[in-house]
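sanity check this chain:
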Amino acid sequence: MSGGLARLLALLGVVVPYELAARLGHLFFGVEVCPMTVWRAVARLGAACEEYVEGQARFYGDARHEAGSPQGVGAVVLGVDGCALGMQVRRKRRRRQPGQVLAPLPKVEEGHFREVKTGVLLLPSERVEPSPGRHAVVRRVLCTFLGDADRIFERLWAKLCELGWLGPQTVVVIVGDGRTP
């Protein structure tokens, strides 16, 4: 399978179930693949994205790197929050036979939850009023991490640097509930 096809299948696989992504891949690209192939493509793309974001955080987090750009922006709003995500822990992978309906997954056991942190960056200057009394933001930049608050802030810092939004006069407003697990 070519890298281009793998990327297209992976993009389908992140928005629809793998089985449907495989059928759509056949309809769109004329290539028959099994749902497991889509899953593998999604896993590889996810691993590559994670590696890129980790490298970005290391690069911008290095003390030798000058943070920010000469101009930056006036203000940035950074919203951050977390939620608990139940992790299914199974010794053996479930396999569905043709025509079989799988039973619901068991209740997530205590201690099998992980904290997912999500941060959103936006510029107040990009706020618009599409209709009277209704406000929206033109662009949002998201960062999500399955881990602790320090790691999400490393990623958010890297994203701010990459976007060139940080400067000597930039005010960063952080909105969050301030709770840690």
About this structure: Residues 50 and 70 are 29 Å apart (CA to CA). The chain has a mean pLDDT of 87. The beta strands are 75-86, 113-122, 127-131, 134-137, 141-146, 171-175. Residues 67-91+108-181 form one domain.
